[in-house]
Design brief:
By secondary structure, the protein is an alpha+beta fold. Helix content is 32%, strand content 27%. The chain contains five helices and four strands, in the order ααββββααα. The protein has helices at residues 5-13, 24-27, 96-103, 106-115, 121-131; strands spanning 31-39, 56-64, 70-78, 85-93. The two termini are 25 Å apart. Mean pLDDT is 79; it is low at 42-46.
């Protein structure tokens, strides 16, 4: 499911155990570069509402902040009823390449490659960065 940086921020900041260092004011006006999420138990669901009550969700986003830095925000939640938990985090980077390679994990990069539209000009640039670090 394609998301926005604001949606991932809201999901990640809802987890009180792991507060984000970035603020809502800092992401106001940010340009979403890449943001994906879905249900871990059903693959990428087109809608979080179809995840069901006993499922894991994961999402991440990369965005360019108005001040020129890049931010990566990630979140995950486990609502399976067996020790429900959530986590979230964020990091800022000077370049898009650093954000993709140091802010995203291997699985997130692989998911991004799978879902980026190879015919879209901006997506081709991101795919190139993901493949040629």
């Amino acid at each position: 499911m394609t998301l926005t940086i604001q949606e991932v921020f809201e999901q990640a900041s809802g987890c009180g155990d792991h507060p984000l260092t970035i603020t809502a004011a800092e992401i106001n006006g940010a340009e979403t570069i890449l943001a994906l999420g879905g249900c871990g138990c059903r693959g990428l669901s087109p809608n979080y509402d179809t995840c069901g009550s006993y499922c894991d969700t994961e999402s991440f986003a990369v965005a360019k902040l108005p001040d020129g830095r890049y931010v990566v925000i990630h979140e995950s939640s486990d609502t399976t009823g067996h020790g429900c938990r959530c986590s979230g985090g964020d990091s800022t980077h000077a370049t898009l390449s650093d954000a993709l390679w140091h802010g995203l994990g291997r699985e997130d990069r692989e998911m991004a490659l799978k879902y980026l539209d190879a015919t879209d000009v901006k997506a081709r640039e991101i795919r190139g960065l993901l493949l040629n670090a």
